[in-house]
Amino acid sequence: MIIRLKEGGERIPLTISGSDPKKGLITIIFQEIGKTTIELGRMEEGESILNLVGPLGMPAELKNFGTVVCVGGGVGIAPILYRVKALKSVGNRVISIIGARNKDLLILHNEMKELSDELHIATDDGTLGRKGFVTDVLDEVLAENRVDLIIAIGPVVMMRAVTGVGSAHGVRTVVSLNPIMVDGTGMCGSCRVTVGKKVRFACVDGPEFDGEFVDFDELLQRNRRYLKEEAASLMVMRAGRCTCFEETGCE
Q1: pLDDT, tens digit, for every residue of 62-107?
Q2: Binding-site entries for FAD
Q3: Considering its fold, how many domains does the chain have in total?
């Protein structure tokens, strides 16, 4: 889904990590890394955001595949938790692998342990679980188990690496892409990705695609398009002023 906090604010895509249809509630877990997510984190209970649109894109394929390995990295663990719950509901055996740079950045490991048939943890510095990357663990899991599908959600470089390990073992990998999104309809073209040498729009055709056919290099390049502007916007926010005030009334 895409949210906008206020008039003049940017639109950012976020993935839900839980829902309660009876109460009409959704759960979103995000990392305060840019201007809008920091502002979102500053909101108090009872405040509201201006716009929320979704769900967007195609529903994830859900059936009994057999044994599924779910790989979550960083804040990508939040949506992978939702996928694990759904996969278990239709009878899959789920082996989960989650990772982060260190234990302080590893989220939801207790919830993942409760839902998964088997949970492996990897941290870059070894402060929790195995020292190393999720791909190190994945390689071992695939060598020891018959696996029917891999699902990976996290940083692009992680999803590319997971896809490579999966391909080496002959196992299909589904990835959830996170390109820049603006309108959520595909009209703006910001979320354009190349999959199987064909143009796809993640907000309407995705976000999940077969990792083997994704042009990850192009995705990485396109995701860097506004790094300079994002850094400037964050710097202005921390300085306590907004340069777009005169044009939009943004405060």
Answers
A1: 999 999 999 999 999 999 999 999 999 999 999 999 999 999 999 9
A2: 29-31
A3: 2
